[in-house]
């Protein structure tokens, strides 16, 4: 049976002092004699100062274990320092431990001294760090484990209640560490996601270039534009201070620039402008806006400028009460009498547009009298 008691960070002298008070309280609660208490606390401080001084930062985990017929206090002190050179020589007495090699521990007893203080010890060290395990047998029988756990946890609680400021400081530090680890994890996730998206985009681009049938080229071009919209969101998120929001206009300008790069040619030159209110929006909404704008830009390039060599498209994003107003307009041919209404089209693109607008309980207006003008109203309270 094994029960964890507490884990303490070892970074400052104040941390080592906190370990001292905690170890004294636990060993006293477990019935250690005064001499045994001093041995255990001294050994723990030796190992803790080694981690704190030579590896800058470490951790100590205290737990209770059954050892033969006794309850034992186990301490594992770990760090991520450079390791201890000549460990075997040091432990055999062939090499004198010094402060410079990391083996001359805090109170001067050295690594070999720990073996005289603990009932059992083991040390593992490599270039990735050092782990020191110490075991101290209590006078309690193993069947008293539940009582021992209760006594130890009560002692820890009393220390916390006696010094709430120190406990709050420790909790804040643990929270900051957790947030830092989360940020590092998110960066790694974003990095891998970016690589995967780039690979998907490259595969689509290669397939498009190898395709012979015009229909296949068209489908792959549309798909590439949609994937590129998602890639642009991801890139903006990586550059953003917040991982769940980004600035709308810079992102939409990247979507527009990507469309210009993809569709402008010697036969057709279309300029795309993006203007409006540069507000911060959730990343999920940015993906939807990018797909909406990308889809309409693709449609404009394919249908609005037939028989022309140049044209213009404007994208405008503004705030309207509690909603966003998105307008994509071109100076192309617009709709003529007899043309099917695009907003009722059964094409994949317009089905996707209707689905995204419906997601926000929004509205769509299409005007084809002077070029094509499509307006979306997307309530923000739906985000």
Automatic annotation (TrEMBL):
Name of protein: histidine kinase
DNA-binding as UniProt keyword: no
Histidine kinase domain segment(s): 188-382
Organism: Phaeobacter porticola
Molecular function via GO: ATP binding; protein histidine kinase activity
Keywords in alphabetical order: ATP-binding, Kinase, Nucleotide-binding, Phosphoprotein, Plasmid, Transferase
Top-level EC class: transferase
InterPro entries xref list: HATPase_C_sf, HATPase_dom, His_kinase_dom, Sig_transdc_His_kin_sub2_dim/P, Sig_transdc_His_kinase_HWE
Catalytic activity annotation: ATP + protein L-histidine = ADP + protein N-phospho-L-histidine
EC number: 2.7.13.3
One Pfam family hit: HATPase_c_2
Record's keyword annotation contains ATP-binding: yes
């Amino acid at each position: 049976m094994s029960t964890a008691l507490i884990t303490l960070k070892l970074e400052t002298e104040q941390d080592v002092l906190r370990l001292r008070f905690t170890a004294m309280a636990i060993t006293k609660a477990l019935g250690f004699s005064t001499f045994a208490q001093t041995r255990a606390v001294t050994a723990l401080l030796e190992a803790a100062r080694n981690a704190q001084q030579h590896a800058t930062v470490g951790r100590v985990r205290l737990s209770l274990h059954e050892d033969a017929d006794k309850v034992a206090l186990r301490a594992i002190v770990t760090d991520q320092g450079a390791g201890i050179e000549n460990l075997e020589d040091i432990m055999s007495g062939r090499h004198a431990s010094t402060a410079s090699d990391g083996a001359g521990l805090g109170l001067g007893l050295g690594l070999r001294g720990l073996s005289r203080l603990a009932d059992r010890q083991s040390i593992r060290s490599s270039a990735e760090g050092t782990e020191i395990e110490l075991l101290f047998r209590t006078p309690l029988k193993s069947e008293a484990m539940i009582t021992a756990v209760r006594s130890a946890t009560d002692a820890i609680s009393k220390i916390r209640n006696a010094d709430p400021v120190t406990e709050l400081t420790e909790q804040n530090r643990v929270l900051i560490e957790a947030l830092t680890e989360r940020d590092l994890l998110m960066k790694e996730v974003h990095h891998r996601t970016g690589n995967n998206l780039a690979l998907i985009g490259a595969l689509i681009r290669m397939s498009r270039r190898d395709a012979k049938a015009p229909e296949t080229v068209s489908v792959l071009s549309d798909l590439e534009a949609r994937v590129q919209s998602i890639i642009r969101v991801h890139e903006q998120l990586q550059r953003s201070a917040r991982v769940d929001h980004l600035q709308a206009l810079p992102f939409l300008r990247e979507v527009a620039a990507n469309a210009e790069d993809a569709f402008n040619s010697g036969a057709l030159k279309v300029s795309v402008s993006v203007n409006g209110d540069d507000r911060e929006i959730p990343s999920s909404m940015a993906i939807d806006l990018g797909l909406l704008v990308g889809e309409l830009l693709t449609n404009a390039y394919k249908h609005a400028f037939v028989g022309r060599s140049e044209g213009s498209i404007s994208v405008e994003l503004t705030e309207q009460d509690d909603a966003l107003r998105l307008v994509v307009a071109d100076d192309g041919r617009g709709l003529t009498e007899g043309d099917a209404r695009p907003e009722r089209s059964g094409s994949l693109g317009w089905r996707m547009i209707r689905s995204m607008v419906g997601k926000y309980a929004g509205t769509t207006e299409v005007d084809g009298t002077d070029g094509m003008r499509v307006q979306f109203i997307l309530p923000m309270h739906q985000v």
